[in-house]
Design a protein that fits this description.
The structure is a single chain. By secondary structure, this protein is an alpha+beta fold. It contains ten helices and 21 strands. It has two domains: 291 residues, Electron Transport, Fmn-binding Protein, Chain A (Pnp Oxidase, Chain A), CATH 2.30.110; 115 residues, UbiD C-terminal domain-like (3-Layer(aba) Sandwich), CATH 3.40.1670. It is globular and about 75 Å long. The protein starts with 8 loop residues before the first helix and ends in a 28-residue tail after the last strand.
Length: 453
């Protein structure tokens, strides 16, 4: 595999700035609501990443909107956006490498112990109107299975409690499973919390790889070389060598505090509930570190979840039919669009099989299958196919009583099931001529720069 264009968060920010993809905000910005408001305005109106350099007048730096589109994520892999899913699939099958330990790593340039107020050294934001407090929203929690030694990393939200945090470990996710093992042993769980992580590590941590695999080694497969790590100072874990900030500590198996609500990935607020307490014993960081803020429910959060999920889903759907050419889970990963290639003489019903396979994924709630002449990345094109190619008496699949995404607001309780919907918006091979789409000759060859200044 070829190396990525950038090597760490700072280099990625420089890469984006050189291409006009980064907005720099040097004016003082408040961490309570104001920063999120400016960040969202830049996302919605400029579609760019942002770097704040003076949070709360303390000179603290915080980046946002870094992964807010297929275009920005494709920069990480050095490929055009339309090739991103194929590149992700190739990485999942690429050679893995053991991690490479780096002495004197950049993430340990500064070592702090006995911190009494984490907002004095880390920019922590309050993003949504009814959030219960300030949250770390882009923190990668690194932990280790006490039985197998398997190292796991995942983005988890942490609520700031001045001299400690609480952490949300989502049920049935890998970090939660590891924490259950520590609870059975009656031992607190050592953790390293990574802020301002290498972009490739952020992506790997949301990749959804099987439990027995290691996100650090998957990051190495993406890079095409061993991923560089540093040993923590006070816990027996390793972390990305070029990360900006590391919080080393323990997740208590006996102490909990009320946490929430916070605006969730669904753009609704989760409930208030008791969450494990995280005690931090040591902070290491780079000089003038850069943290990160992901606003829940925006396309940035959905992109980090959807893009790696597309690769997994595409591989599974191609086992059902080799006619599957592409999958799109953006802008909201509950909704899946699948594209089928057109071949004469293909047996009818393939689209239904593909729909059932897509809906089997717990996170997919609605699925649409379209033909090759529909651009699955343009919502207006998909809506056109739904309006003109769906017979609602025979092209609709409803699946009741299915297991769904844990934070689906339609679930009345954590144990509730959901109903899922599949729509076959493909044209029957026997009627293909009747549904030939009008097209403008030469459209693909037109370069606007040749025609307008």
């Amino acid at each position: 595999m070829s190396a990525l264009i950038h090597d760490d968060l700072r280099e990625f920010l420089g890469f984006l700035q050189a291409r006009g993809e980064l907005v720099r905000v040097d004016r003082e910005v408040a961490s309570r609501y104001q920063l999120a408001a400016v960040q969202m305005k830049i996302l919605n109106e400029l579609d760019k990443a942002v770097l704040f350099t003076n949070v709360d007048g303390k000179g603290q730096q915080l980046a946002g909107n870094l992964y807010s589109s297929r275009r920005l994520i494709s920069y990480m892999f050095g490929v055009p956006p339309e090739e991103l899913t194929a590149r992700v699939m190739a990485c999942s099958e690429a050679r893995t490498f053991p991690v490479e330990y780096v002495p004197g790593a950049p993430c340990q340039e500064v070592v702090l112990k006995g911190v009494k107020d984490f907002k004095e050294i880390i920019p922590i934001t309050r993003n949504s109107e009814h959030d219960s407090g300030f949250f770390l929203t882009a923190a990668v929690v690194v932990c280790q299975d006490p039985e197998s030694g398997k190292v796991n990393s995942a983005i988890c939200r942490l609520e700031y409690k001045q001299d400690h945090f609480t952490v949300q470990l989502v049920a049935n996710q890998h970090s939660w499973l590891i924490f259950q093992k520590y609870k059975k042993l009656g031992r607190d769980m050592p953790v390293a919390i990574v802020l301002g992580a290498d972009p490739v590590f952020m992506f790997a941590s949301e990749s959804g790889i099987p439990y027995d695999q290691n996100e650090f080694e998957y990051a190495g497969a993406i890079l095409g070389r061993p991923f560089k790590v540093a040993r923590c100072r006070t816990v027996d874990l390793y972390v990305p060598a070029k990360a900006e900030i590391i919080l080393e500590g323990q997740v208590s198996v006996s102490k909990e505090e009320m946490e929430g609500p916070m605006g969730e990935v669904t753009q609704y607020y989760g409930g208030k509930s008791a969450k494990p307490v995280v005690e931090i014993g040591c902070v290491t960081c780079r000089q003038n570190p850069i943290s990160e803020n992901i606003i829940s429910g925006t396309v940035e959060e959905h992109s980090l979840l959807a893009v790696p999920m597309e690769g997994r889903l595409l591989a599974r759907l191609r086992q059902v039919s080799p006619l599957v050419t592409a999958v799109n889970l953006l802008p909201f990963f509950f909704n899946c669009v699948v594209q089928l290639d057109d071949y004469p003489g293909v047996q009818e019903g393939i689209a239904k099989n593909v729909l059932l396979a897509a809906l089997a994924d717990p996170w997919v709630k609605t699925a649409v299958v379209v033909n090759r002449d529909v651009d699955l990345y343009r919502p207006e094109d998909v809506n056109w196919a739904l309006a003109t190619r769906v017979d609602f008496t025979r092209d609709v699949l409803r699946v009741d009583g299915a297991y769904g995404f844990p934070l689906d607001p339609m679930k009345e309780s954590a144990a509730s099931t959901v109903s899922k919907l599949g729509l076959d918006a493909t044209v029957s091979p026997a009627q293909r001529d009747r549904f030939t789409r009008r097209w403008v000759v030469g459209y693909g060859e037109v370069k606007l720069g040749d025609w307008i200044s």
